[in-house]
Amino acid sequence: MVIIDGLKLDLADVVAVADGEHVTLDPEAVVRMDESRKSAEATALRRPVYGRSTGVGANRTVSLTEADGGDTHGLKLLRSHAVDAGKPLDRRTVRAMLVVRLSQLAAGGSGINPAIAQALVELINSNVVPEIREFGGIGTADLQALAGTALTMLGERQPLGGGEVPVRLAGWATADALPFISSSALTIGQAILAHQKLSTLLDSAASTAALSFVAMSGNSEALSPAVAAAADTPEVASAATMFHSMVQGTGEPARIQDPYCLRTLPQIFGSQAEELARLHALLSRLVTAGNENPLIHGAPSDRTNDVAHHGLFQMTNLARRVDSLQLAIGAACATHLRRIDLLCDPKYTRLHPFLAQDGSGQSGVMMLEYVAAAAVGRIRANAQPVSLQTVVLSLGAEEDASFASVATAQLESTADALAIVAAVELVCASRALRLQGRQPEEFTSPRLRAMMQAGLTLPSDMEDRDLRGDLERAAELIGASS
Prior knowledge:
It contains 19 helices and six strands. By secondary structure, the protein is mainly alpha-helical. It has a two-stranded parallel sheet.
């Protein structure tokens, strides 16, 4: 059970809920939300409040009391904003969105009725989720996804795969419509799932790169404490220390100076770790940030209650952070491919070309390099900066967009492709070490020893054959190992 208090939510907990864990609201969060609701109501009595007493977007100058008395505007807003298109997102992604939104509401800046948050708890715990489609958000709040969620909670839209919502809301007050949908919870949830997957993948990829280093008798001087001390960032220094501890004592170097794909391992993985940490810090803030527009603050009890109309829902920083991580991963791909290439080269492994069983012209792992290159093509395409995009919408009322939603969807695609690249390297490195007669017991590093033991669970048959099964198994190992 994950407790949602609106103050802190570990990214690992978001993943746990996405994978089926139940949630509960902290009682203090319920009190905080109720105080926010009272504050919003008090403020609306003395000044216009966007979306509560006015229309939204280009209709922000329209008074709801003039338009239709304000009685049905909330339902109209949800229905009109719920349109999306494309393929339905998977249940795991939608659950991540729901728990992120619940955590944000629990922060107490929306002014929403706590009963809606309680209904959201029941929805998550029932595993009945709304059907959310891929196209809708542009990085300025996931209005369509959350409006569609509201319609599902009202019983107006069928859940993903059918089923019944556990608590069907009888109506939706105008005061609660915009506060519920004014969030980038889907974009944030997708980013968290991709971030956590990449955290595991990059750890596994580093261990696999160390196996390649050993298989090619790399020179550990490039990873020495002296090099770590001279590194330009703490993350590069840490990566040098990590790699040095893994490969130290694994054999004599074959060269005075290695190719870049071995010599620059600290920079390659250190830069990725640096960007991963920065994205982690931002996401950790966003899961409890009250970015709803308008932001409710103060308390009616001491007459400090007010609202702030703002633009924090514009996920500019998230788009740039994802772009930076994508660039770091994309830039590293050249060295991934080069290590795979050199593992196929007898000059570096003292084995037959393409790690074949013998010299009779067998192709060995030749085609795995093509598979890795295809996956790298996807990663490099995804690394084109999304944050440079923009668009003008709603009669010019919204003249910029971060497209963070596109960036996070691409980050998920990058994670899937990187798993393939790392799996290819694991198959090749493990095969090379097996052919060299190396054993896990030779390695003093528990991490390296564990990675080689995992690699030795791959099929040992070296004859030319269908390697799809090997690659699928290696991808499983890459996703589970660290």
